Amino acid sequence: MPLQTINPATGELLRDYPEMELPEVLSILEKVQEDYLLWRERPVAKRAALFQRLAELLRTEKEVLGAVMTREMGKPISDAISEVEKSAWVCEYYAEKGPGFLEDEPIETEASESFVTFQPMGIVLAVMPWNFPFWQVFRAAAPALVAGNAMVLKHASNVPECALTIEALFHRAGFPLNVFRSLMVTSAHASIAVAHPYVHGVTLTGSEAAGKKIAAQAGTQIKKTVLELGGADAYLVLEDADIAAAAKCCVASRMINGGQSCIAAKRFVVVEAVRDEFEKAVVEAMRAYVMGDPTKKETKLGPQAREDLRDELHGQVQRCVAEGATLLLGGEVPEKPGAWYPATVLTDVKPGMPAYSDELFGPVASIIPVRDEDEGIKVANDTRFGLGGAVFTADVEKGRKLAREQLHAGAIAVNDFVRSDPRLPFGGIRMSGYGRELSSFGIREFVNIKTVVVK
């Protein structure tokens, strides 16, 4: 079964890529293991320096690389270029900070010397999604490879050109040929890679269902996994908030990548006293996201990545309306080729509706009115997910306390929206996954945290 590039703006099939046969997959894993054994012996400073060269390539070629994303998954070209720049940033971050994060840590005991050292584990399999096809890969690869591991990438099946382009970038930056490789396979052969004895860890960013499957497969082999899965992030708007600013921030988060982001705001939980003002501001802000040609730099909303995903999203919106939600904007599939869906606003969202309980992966804002702050906190936490969230209030100390103690997720923002940053740990709780990416925490996920005691 070939992997395909289909332009989501037009529905046009651009290219087929043959899937690797099993013998080729096994051969690649053998070669990666050979290069890993040499790579792990290279001084960490020299491993890190190659990421500086990789960052330079990314920045120099950002427009060409951005166009690959726009072709394959419909990301507006300005956003795609920004994604390449952010990928360069994470490479630069670990080039600078990685060696320090991996330094031995002395610990005083009765022994003459005791210390903790951070040693590579081996090959890490990265199962990555289509929505941020460069950033997701580089934020996983940079810490893993600086730490001395090797990586094989199983990218989403609808972004094969991105996968091959990223592999070529590593080679051109001077990395050993088989320290980073892309496996052009579907999920069936990915399972074989998970079970392979040379693979010692798996990092996955993707759906709840994919996370369960990979975690179960890795669990039978007792292999370390890091999972970054879906989210239904709640943004709590309190009565004393700056409503105009809160609405603008909520919408900016909701519309990241056309709404196709795990960490995007999904549920706007607003206190009834300011509901009307907030709804009007949200509709006005959402209306500014007009669908347009993703190759144009002024476009703010391109197509969704695939037509089947667009249809699934529309079905969720229709079910919400049928169950009593009010449609304030959008909600209609355009009559033209491609995976288009307009900016959409739902209100009167209640428990049991898809917009309340599930993840809507697209440009749909869901407003949930609540009586007061206490009910708002309860609703915000009433989810099986726990990736991110936010609270908007004029009382910053109150917001800080709510964020620290009462809102349950991997990251909470006060009067701002959550975004990934190389300097900060990123990840979720509950069905949003486990483990952390980025910062010092991310580089230590796939290492042997080894104790050494000298008498």
Task: Write a concise synopsis of the structure shown.
The protein has helices spanning 22-39, 44-60, 62-73, 77-101, 135-146, 160-172, 187-195, 208-220, 243-254, 275-287, 307-322, 354-357, 373-381, 396-406, 439-443; strands spanning 3-7, 12-17, 105-106, 113-120, 123-127, 150-154, 180-182, 199-205, 224-228, 233-237, 265-271, 326-329, 344-347, 364-370, 388-392, 411-414, 433-434, 447-454.
Strand order of the largest sheet: 12-13-14-11-10-15-16
The count of β-strands is 18
Whole-number total of structural domains = 2
The Cα radius of gyration reads: 22 Å
Helix/strand class: alpha/beta
Largest sheet: 7 strands, mixed
CATH class division of the largest domain: Alpha Beta
CATH superfamily of the largest domain: Aldehyde Dehydrogenase, Chain A, domain 1
* Helix content range: 40-55%
Low-confidence stretches: none
CATH architecture descriptor name of the largest domain? 3-Layer(aba) Sandwich
